[in-house]
C-alpha cells in the first residue's frame, strides 16, 4: 500500500498506449460498494475471495497494464496467475516512505488501526518475500518522482522487448 501501483500503473499504461485496469477498482465496480465497506461486511477473507475471482477474470485480457492491491500476492493461486500471465513489476519502498504516502488515506481498512506505521512495517515484513517471488523487475520508488519511475519502467520494458 502506497508503493504507487495505481498511480504509476495508470501513467505507465498511458505512456505505453495500453489499457489500464486496477484490480481494486474492478472489485468495487462489480459489487457497488467501497473497499472499506467490503471489509466491514465480509471481512478480509470475503475481500480476498472477490480479489481472486476478479484477478482470474481480468487475467484473461491480453496486453493491459494491471495494478493489483498490495495483498493480491498472499494466495498462491493469485501468484501463479501473475507469474504466468504478466511481466510483474514490484514497486519497492521503505515502510517509512509507504506510511508517509498513505497516512491520511481512509480507504485502506488494514491501516485503520491505532498504529498504522507499525502495521505497514509488519505487512511489508510478511509480504516482501512474496513480492520478490513473483517479480520479474524490482523498481525502487523511494526517491524517484512518479514520472521518473514511469520512465524507468517503460525503458526497461522496451529493452526487454529488443
Ligand atoms: N514515486 C512516488 N513518489 C511520491 N509519491 C508517490 C509515488 N508513487 C505514488 N505516490 C503517491 O502515493 C500515494 C499512494 O499511491 P497509490 O498509487 O495509491 O499506491 P498503491 O496503489 O500502491 O497503494 C498517492 O498519493 C500517490 O500520488
Ligand atoms: O495490502 C493490502 O492488503 C490491500 C491493499 C489495497 O490496495 P493498494 O495496495 O492499492 O492500496 C486494497 O487492495 C486493500 O485495502 C488491501
Ligand atoms: Mg492501489
3D architecture notes:
It is a single chain. 60% of the residues lie in helices and 9% in strands. With 162 residues, the protein is mainly alpha-helical. It has one domain: P-loop containing nucleotide triphosphate hydrolases (Rossmann fold, 3-Layer(aba) Sandwich), CATH 3.40.50. The longest helix is centred in the first third of the chain and has 24 residues, at 35-58. The mean pLDDT is 97. The structure holds adenosine-5'-diphosphate, shikimate-3-phosphate and magnesium ion. Adenosine-5'-diphosphate binds next to helix 1, helix 5 and helix 7. The site of shikimate-3-phosphate (S3P) has 11 residues, from helix 1.
Key attributes of the depicted protein:
globular; 60% helix; binds magnesium ion; two-stranded parallel ribbon; 162 residues; binds adenosine-5'-diphosphate; binds shikimate-3-phosphate; Rossmann fold
CATH class: Alpha Beta
Largest sheet: 2 strands, parallel
H/E element sequence: HEHHEHEHHEH
Strand content: 5-15%
Query: Segments where pLDDT lies below 50 for 5+ residues?
Result: none
Whole-number mean pLDDT:
97
Helix-strand category: mainly alpha
Count of structural domains: 1
Given the C-alpha coordinates, what overall shape results?
globular
Instruction: Summarize the amount of helix as a percent range.
Output: 55-70%
Distance between the termini: 32 Å
Tell me the number of strands.
4
How many H/I helical runs? 7
The CATH architecture term is 3-Layer(aba) Sandwich
Catalytic activity: shikimate + ATP = 3-phosphoshikimate + ADP + H(+)
Keywords: Amino-acid biosynthesis, Aromatic amino acid biosynthesis, ATP-binding, Cytoplasm, Kinase, Magnesium, Metal-binding, Nucleotide-binding, Transferase
GO molecular function: ATP binding; magnesium ion binding; shikimate kinase activity
Pathway: Metabolic intermediate biosynthesis; chorismate biosynthesis; chorismate from D-erythrose 4-phosphate and phosphoenolpyruvate: step 5/7
Amino acid at each position: 500500500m502506497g508503493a504507487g501501483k495505481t498511480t504509476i500503473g495508470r501513467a505507465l499504461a498511458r505512456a505505453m498506449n495500453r489499457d489500464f485496469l486496477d484490480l481494486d477498482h474492478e472489485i468495487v465496480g462489480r459489487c457497488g460498494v467501497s473497499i472499506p465497506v467490503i471489509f466491514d461486511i465480509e471481512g478480509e477473507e470475503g475481500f480476498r475471495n472477490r480479489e481472486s475471482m476478479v484477478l482470474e477474470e481480468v487475467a484473461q485480457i491480453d496486453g493491459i497494464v494491471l495494478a493489483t492491491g498490495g495483498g493480491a500476492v498472499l494466495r498462491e493461486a493469485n501468484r501463479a496467475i501473475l507469474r504466468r500471465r504478466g511481466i510483474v513489476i514490484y514497486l519497492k519502498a521503505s515502510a517509512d516512505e509507504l506510511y508517509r504516502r498513505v497516512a491520511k488515506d481512509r480507504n485502506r481498512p488494514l491501516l485503520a488501526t491505532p498504529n498504522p506505521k507499525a502495521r505497514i512495517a509488519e505487512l511489508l515484513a510478511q509480504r516482501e518475500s512474496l513480492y520478490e517471488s513473483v517479480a520479474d523487475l524490482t523498481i525502487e520508488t523511494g526517491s524517484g518522482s512518479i514520472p521518473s519511475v514511469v520512465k524507468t519502467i517503460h525503458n526497461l520494458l522496451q529493452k526487454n522487448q529488443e
